[in-house]
Write a structure and sequence with these properties.
Length: 196
Amino acid sequence: MRLLLIPALLLALSGCVPASVASETASVGAPAPDFTLTDTDGNTVALSSYAGKTVVLEWFNPDCPFVKYAHGAKGPLKEQPGRVTSDEVVWLAINSGAPGKQGHGLERNQRARTEFGIDYPVLLDEDGTVGRLYGARTTPHMYVVDTAGTLVFAGALDGDPMGSGDKNNAVDACLTDLADGNAVANAYGCSVKYGK
C-alpha cells in the first residue's frame, strides 16, 4: 500500500494534484480517458482531437446555484474561459445531467450558453458515462489535461463558493504553471444529476 502512495505524493508535491483522487475513476497523473460527446450545436467533440493542447473540463449544470454564481457578473467563470482560451488552451463544459433532472437537455443548455455568454462548447453526457469515468461529483467540478494528454488536475475551481471564501483560483494556478501548480481541496457545488 505504501508503494502506491509514493507516486501520488510525488505528484502532489510537484504538480496540480488534489489531496484525494478516487481510484475507480480517471486518475491524476495518468492519461486522461478519451471520450466523444455531442455539443449543443450538434457537433461531435472528442477529447483526443485536442492532442497537443491543454484542455480544461468544467462539469456544468445551468440551473445549479453554484454554476449560476460562477458564471454570473461577479463569478470567476464570467471571464476566465475567454481569458485563458487560446490556440494552446481549450475549454469544454460537460453536462452529465440525466433526463428529467435539473439543468438537463439540449434546449436548456443552448439557452444557458446565451444567458451566460458561453462561447465554448457545452457537451451533453445524458447517460453520465463520461462524468462517472472522470469521477465528477459536483457542478462546477474542474479538470485539466496537459499537452501530453495527462490528467494533471481534478478539483474545485477555487475556495470561494458563492463568493464567500478564498478567491485564489486553482485552475488559473494550474494553467499558469503546470509544473509548480497548487493542490486544491475537494470540489464544491451541486451534485451532478446522474440518472440511475
